[in-house]
Amino acid sequence: MENSLHPDCAVLALRVNGRAHRVPAAPDTPLLHVLRNDLALNGPKFGCGLGECGACTVLIDGVAARSCVIPVRAARGREVTTLEGLGTRAQPGATQQAFIECQAAQCGYCLNGMIMTVEALLRRNPRPTEDELRSELHHNLCRCGTHIEILRAGLRAAQLRAECGAACVGKPHGAGR
Amino acid sequence: MSGMPPGPAEATPVSRVERPVDCLHGLMLRPPVVLWDGARYRGSRLVRAPLADARSQPGVVSVVQCAEFIGVVAVGALYAGQALASLAPVWRAPEGGVHEAPAGTPPASAGVSHADAPSTPARYVWRTAGSDVPAGIEVVVWCADHHAGVWLPPCPAPAQWLVRRELAALLRLAPDALELHVLEGGASGLHPLSLMDAAAEAALLSQAVGRPVGVPCRGEHPAALALSAVPADAFGADAPAEDAVSAPPPRAGATGPRLRAESPWGVRPSLARLLSEPDSAHAVAGAGVQPAGAVAAGRGAVAGAAHVGVHELNAAQVFAQESLWHEQALARGEDPLAWRVRQMPDGPGRVLAQQVVESAALGAHAPQRGPASDGLLHGRGLATAQVQCTDDDGGSRMVWSAWVAQVRVQPRTGEVDVTRVVAGQDSAHLQAVQVASTHRRIVQDPALLASARELLGAPAAFDDWAPRAGAGTTDGGGDSALARHTGALAPAAQGAVAEGRLAVDGVLTLPAAAAIANAIHDATGVRLREAPFEREALRLALSAGAGAARRPGRLRRGWAWLASGAAGLAGLAAMAWPVKPALPLTEGPDVSLYSEQVIERGRLVAAAGDCIACHTAPGGAPNAGGFALETPFGTIYSTNITPDNETGIGRWSYAAFERAMREGIHQDGRQLYPAFPYTAFAKLSDADMQALYGYLMAQPPVQAEAPETRLAFPYSLRPAIAGWNALFHDPTPFTPDPGRSVEWNRGAYLVQGAGHCAACHSPRNSLGAEKTGIHYLAGGAAEGWQAPALNRLADGPLPWTREELYQYLRTGYAARHGVAAGPMAPVIHGLAELPDSDVRAITTYLMALPGETDAGGVASAQAGAKAAAAPAGPAGAPAQADTARLFPQHANGERIYQNACAVCHEAGSGPTLFGVKPLLGLNTNLHAATPDNLIQVILNGIQTPADDALGYMPAFRDSLDDRQIADLVGYLRSRFAPGQPAWREVADAAGRMRAAGHTTHEQGEAQQAE
User: Fold this and answer.
1) Which of A39, B236, B689, B718 is 20 to 30 A (C-alpha) from B709?
2) Which residues of B touch A64 (CB under 8 A)?
3) Model ipTM value
4) Span A2-83: which CATH code?
5) Alpha carbon separation from B294 to A87, B248, B308 (Å, rounded)
């Protein structure tokens, strides 16, 4: 139906994980579809399609976003970060590393959403309490029951982030001063 | 503070400057009244604000308090706004009441005095224009321990100087500990105080969180600077010693007239500094005019929020001082020009003035009293200015300028024309006066003449479209609104006029206002003491001076009433004629004849009228028609209004276009259905109508035949609409109400005319006509949505404040009311094209609408607010658990809410997600009489928000059936609007809307897709 409404797909300029992309897509296409199908970024998962489960979470301008209910046009002019943007297999980001250490996965389908949501929380609140972490993850669904491990991973992520400290935080005058 | 000390070397703009990544966003709480007496903050004081509530809002990083300053830092601007709105602060009114700046004095009485009138101490008023700021312009500051980085939008060096000074004072840093980066791009036309305020807010917030914080720049309302003459002997006794801070004592031997300001005579500190250091807030910049006629700073509390910069202070001072010289000369029976020159101290200034007067005398006819042979009054006036400024090289200079203006006044109408300007300028470096080559030039530039005429600009009319500041215009286009009021600035000098430091060229135009005022007095004997001048004031003074005790105002109103009555009758007679002739098709206009300005004006009229919303089919070309409009009488298809010759309006003459717009008659003589709101468009002024025609005709033609509208009998009888028109349509254009402010009239014009708000927001009678009187804007329906009442916004179930309404119209979202959805979203899109001042005008008009009050609703809403804040679920509300057990539907509704809605809508818990978190307890739709809008949103979601940043809501039409929607809606109503009765037959309504809305839903989805 989307395509019938937009026979001529627009070419959309997107910035994902720090790189510029030009993607032909109907502007109403969910961002998730473009990320997975056009950009081959399969970190974000399709779960419910209604923004209810959180498996599709990405960051838009540093804020968690449920990419299955956000049309791709909303991402124009913004910085999108997916799971792939947090680190690599060889060098996982602090939050990814914490989830690995804490073995916070059973089937792993929800983990993209868990990691991205924790990442978004830590960017605005580097030292969350367990309650704050619980509240933030309240609406990310996990069917396997690894909640305890996930909470542990969230707290560990805050710890790892604090340890990397100065390396993560810049200075107003740049490295020189 | 005499003149400007030379500033430190400015930051050299780095070639590629980028803002820091991961920038946070901040906003400051603005007190209702901001007053500054020159040394202290005197405005509203904070009694309490629930900071904890704001901290628990989504996306909030920190809430910062410092004395009266409260700011929020969040991960996005929207979150900051939402947290700020949750504060609901309580303010204490300023001590001793508010002494508002005298902005509202009627010009006819205060700004004018006739020569015969005994002269009470003369009072001069300089009015500044408000400043508009385009959305999205931010200042970013990143504070570290002993230094800070500042990222500014493109702005001139003097504005940077002011920001540096202000931040140094605020952060207690040496000025060179601040590193200024200026982003690339065209001049943004921002007022320096907009920049200064945003920078100071960002600095305080960044200091608190240690990370870069961006704060948006804001515009300001117009202000007035008032200066009164002080008798020479009273001056010394009257001025307390502290005043020396802002006005040094006159030099020995100076004999100039002196002035007392009603306000502190300096540039006010930033709001952030005023609020965070309320007990010691001094100006960092003051006027640069030399103390030949020093200004004593007033201590009357002044409405200090106004954007009054150095240039405004200088302009006001020169205007007052030079007008006063002229008055004094006349009081002594001296020739004002010669007297003024004689009184100047020896030096370059005097030489310059002498030369300018002599140049002006060449080729000029002798001044004469009384009307010349052409019935016009002629006069000449001189004014000079002497300013210390810092030029672009950082050197300090003294700059003199002098003007002689000649004017011609039409005594009957008060119309003034500036016929000739002779202006001169001289400058010298202060550091080396003895060796400096003084640079003198005398000009008679047509550009000066043109800019002098700007000072005579008619007062803002109800159909003036302010150019949007900085919106892609070329050099300084955004300045014009400001320039029109702040001074007669030669176009070339606009960019160079400085705040804090005056670029040399800016001084040239300082004497303009006084020279013209003096010339007008010379011609007519009427003293205009308010600048910019108003023709009406002069006309009234002239006719009063004519002696006969006529009352022109009343007489004129009487006739006007008769005339409009007659026009109404004529209109009625014409409209009742059942058959209208076709108007001839033409070759179409030559659009190259329309100037760029006219087409731009037309574009704004079209944006305000949101033509594109109804004249664009889903997925179709803009304005090519074919949009299906559901009405109670059947489906009406909109027409192609592109200039296509066959299927559009390409061959329509202006007369045909205007007839369609004002009377609802197609070019071929057919009556148009009033679904096309010609009833509103009739209110457009002629100038706007012509501009709209020019704009539409200049668009690319699109060949597209719109489906034919077929209504059932009897509505299919188009001629019957002629009778409808006779009953319900008033085709007279908008006439402003002289008893109301310009802003109100502007708002009324936009709401009643192009905006056609009543088309949806007024109830209609059984014949589809909008009801008027007390029912005007009392709530209506559109496309299956309920359009809420606009005539009791301030006292409805969820009372709106002006600021909330402004935010809603500007951004499509008000935290305490909800988002613009359905047919309102495209309206917000259209409004986004209009300048701030227009949106404020609409707000002013709507908030002042008379309407019935609804006391019961307020209580309900307050209960709703509490319910919104209370956690859901059995743990938080045992009573609800009982209800849930008793009523399975309720439990079902709650479960659906928890699964589908809570992630985005539950207050106080859940993740911070992209977009706003609309609180349901404060949502207008939950307190409404019918569930229609709520059901619409659940069925269709919000796929076309007014702004992408607000976020999206998925449609649940394919996930929830009617029964589930009814359960959910029932639960939402009982939880979030507990004081309101339950809605009935919700499932049926949902089923109806599901069926009916299918087509409009798809249209809505496609509407915004480009």
Assistant:
1) B689
2) 911-914
3) 0.89
4) 3.10.20.30
5) 66, 7, 18
